[in-house]
Amino acid sequence: MSQAGRALVHAFETGALALERAFFLRAELSPFRDVDAEQSFRPEYLRLKKAGWSVVPRIESGAYRLGQLLLTKHKEENFANIARGWSLLAEGGILVCSGSNDDGAASLEKQVGKAFGLDGQLSKFHCRVFWLTRGAKAPPDYWRELATLRPVEGGWLSQPGIFSWDRIDDGSALLARHLPNDLAGHIADFGCGWGYLTREVLAFSREVTRIDLIDAEHRAIEAAQANIADARASFHWLDLAQEAAPATYDAVVCNPPFHAGRASEPGLGQSMIAAAARALRPGGRFYMVANRGLPYEPQLKAHFASFETLTDNNKFRVSCAVR
Q1: SS3 134
Q2: Which of 42, 59, 115, 155 is the most buried (most CB within 10 A)?
């Protein structure tokens, strides 16, 4: 359980809040088992399902008396989730938020207090827990706009909670510029995000017959479905570190969205490399961009017959590996 989760539990155990039937956004394993849980990140969703929780990737509607929300380090995502949480409450219902001070929870608490007024707060485990009642004050329009798909750079539709949600990532743009125009057959976009690389593949490789967009974040799949109107595209909410890809591919493109980690902690990117090797036919090609400081070369060497660097701009490295 995260520190924010522990702080949330503490708020109920100490009697500061009364526990009743509730929803739980960004849910994680905790004593709050008898809740309607929402978790859009596939690994956490699978963990909750395995533990017997009632969990869905998105709660569409409700009139709850109590809602719980674990905050993230992303300000816009928190604004969106607070607006969604407020919309799921009945009039007079209580929304309880918990987040780490290191992720800006104290600053967010002040902003929420100005927007709604707070009923209470406590500090525990280097985290903030605060709560509000759904009354006359509605969330700011900007917060509510963030809670749905909205236009971003280039006319795309996206939403907070997705890697590089409001712009084309520099690494993805670099990879797109170095993809060949002779890709053909059945292709996959691992970690598809809101669909940028898939659009580039479909635009410049006319011999592609099908492309599978795969992401562990359900919000990314929602955005990709809105952005890619092509009969050749299919969409899959999967955790490729523990679930098999839905097909065998002629090529895979990938920008693993894990650049924030230290070079000594590239585990999720390594999982993507291994998953691509498993999913490619012999002779299939894997195109990947990653921060140049991440030590992915040993993984490429271990899983592929050969690989080469296509470009290196001192920030990102684009590699092509052959199965």
Answers
A1: coil
A2: 42
At what angle are helices 196-204 and 170-177 packed, to 10 degrees? 10
The CA distance from 238 to 155, in Å, is 26
User: What does the pLDDT profile of the chain (323 residues) look like in tens digits?
Assistant: 787 767 666 666 665 555 667 999 999 999 888 899 999 999 999 999 999 999 999 999 889 999 999 999 999 999 999 999 999 999 999 999 999 999 999 999 999 999 999 999 999 889 999 999 999 799 999 999 999 999 987 889 999 999 999 999 999 999 999 999 999 999 999 999 999 999 999 999 999 999 999 999 999 999 999 999 999 999 999 999 999 999 999 999 999 865 443 333 446 778 899 999 999 999 999 999 998 888 888 999 999 999 999 999 989 999 999 99
Tokens at residue 135, please? 């009354």
Q: Is 12 exposed, middle or buried (0-12, 13-18, 19+ CB in 10 A)?
A: middle
| Helix, strand or coil, per DSSP, at residue 211 | strand
C-alpha to C-alpha distance for 46 and 186, rounded to whole angstroms: 27
CATH numbers and ranges of domains, the chain = 3-146 (3.40.50.150), 150-322 (3.40.50.150)
- Cα 72 from Cα 76, distance rounded (Å): 10
Query: What six digits make up the tokens of 77?
Result: 């995502």
Half-sphere exposure of residue 208, counting CA atoms within 13 Å on the CB side? 28
Residue 3: closest CA among 83, 130, 101: 101
Task: Spell out the alpha helix ranges (H) of the chain.
Answer: 3-13, 42-50, 75-87, 105-116, 141-146, 170-177, 196-204, 218-227, 267-279, 297-303
How many angstroms separate the CA atoms of 318 and 320, rounded?
7
Q: Which helix (H) or strand (E) holds 64?
A: strand 64-70
Q: What is the pTM of this model?
A: 0.91
CA–CA separation, 94 and 119 (whole Å) = 9
